Amino acid sequence: MIWPKFKDWIDERYDIAELKKLAKSKLIPQHRYDFLYYTGGITLFLFILQFITGMLLAFYYIPHVDFAYESIIDIVTKINMGWFFRSLHHWGAQLCIVFVFIHLFGTLLIKSYRKPREFLWVTGFILLVISIFFGLSGYLMLWDERAFAAVRVATGGAGALPFVGSFIKIFLRGGVDVTGDTLTRFYAFHVSILPVLSLLLIGIHLLFVQYHGMSIPISLEKKEHKEELFFPNVFYKDIIIWLVVLGVVVTLAILLPPEIGKKANALAPPPEGIKPEWYFLFMLETLKLFPGTIMGFNGETIAIVCVSIGIFFFFLIPFLDRKSNRNEGSPIFTVIAVVYIFYFITMTLVGFFD
Amino acid sequence: MKLNYSLISRRQFLNTLFGGSLLAFFSGTLFSLAKFAFPTLGKEPDFVVLDKKDFTDIPKNSAKAFAWGGVLGLYLKKEDGSVAALKGVCTHMECNVAYRPAEKKFYCACHKGWYDEAGKNIAGPPPKPLEFFEVTEKGEKLIIARKGAKVDLAKV
Predict the structure, then answer these.
(1) A52 interaction partners in chain B (CB closer than 8 Å)
(2) For A13-46, what is each residue's pLDDT tens digit?
(3) What CATH number has the domain bearing residue A86?
(4) CB A80 to CB B35 under 8 A?
(5) A255: domain range?
(6) Could you tell me what percentage of chain A is helix, strand and coil, using 3-state DSSP and rounding each to the nearest 5?
(7) Does an H or E element contain B92, and which?
(8) Is the interface score ipTM higher than 0.90?
């Protein structure tokens, strides 16, 4: 038999038994909120799915202003199963963002960010920003009217930041306007810069999870709770949930293929009732709340600064929440978390049904 | 547990069932991924549609190139005015062949292969004759089809 020989060969070089022991000793706490542990795994699975479908789509996609739109039409009409993989990439991305937010809000509510896991929050936050940038750059790839308008608005919004705004805008757009150069640039972000960064950060994030072990909510930490083996119990549960998620994505991809609008035209007005992707709606609705000028200052700049401060405060929560760092109940930050979540969901819904 | 009259144990049965479903799942997934990765676009077409006016006026005893999918097709008008179309790819090592009006033969420069007017391999290394197509005229269009292929104009 070749297999035992191969095993010996590996064993002589690597201490597999030690690794096995390590894997077998990994325990997952069981409690009322342990379903939240699976949201990170689902996000990871969806990221993997996005990597696979993305690599395949890159076989046929042409990142050039004259051919981008046409190449996607070719993918969905001429390539074997092209319609399916494009649709799967679209729905995988949507669910990925959904689960990133669920994972984030779950972490926020049970305060898993508290000492010693601040860096898990930081890496996770950066991964959220990367995910959203993945989404924005990904849907410019279509080069249809909606993508064109959305990227104009988003990069223009960044341009409203004081001092650094126009620098960021020009860096993102590769020029003063959204043109074919922006498409090439966003393609580079989407297929090389962001994937590498996200792989690196996911690696660090997972390493921290292994290092710290699973966080237990403050209210339950001192009580008795059961524990479960990661291998094989929780691992199998993870796989089962991944399979269900795959089923959901595939079903959505088949039943609701995303539409492709008219090809972008820099000289044509955007179509009526145009809306960005749902995860930008809360931002858009917030900007609408501000008048054009506030006491002589540009309203948009003030709005963007306010939103930035809100997001920055959110990012700093693990460092500001002293009480939960001492493992005491921290109702103020629970209220803050609920306000953030409520605001995000309400504004997204308002934007959606507007 | 294994019953006396059973060939396999329950464990073996369950393992086969589970392993089998995993195998089915992954082979299905890999198959569709591979199917997407290998495109239909590069395949040879069953037929191509050309503009008739581009080809009717060529002089006698000459050939004009057209695109047969991704490869060279040749539209040949013989000395007597009859026409034919063929795939202009040598059957030896897939080089493009050229029509030599002086000899009324097709010539492949890669390894000095020769075919006669009817595409028969007559000298040099080519193992098989050239592939000829069927030419039909339809209004302003010229339809070049592989012999025996069904022409479905809706696909154009």
Answers:
(1) 33
(2) 998 888 888 888 888 999 888 899 999 999 999 9
(3) 1.20.810.10
(4) yes
(5) 34-218+227-270
(6) 70, 5, 25
(7) none
(8) no
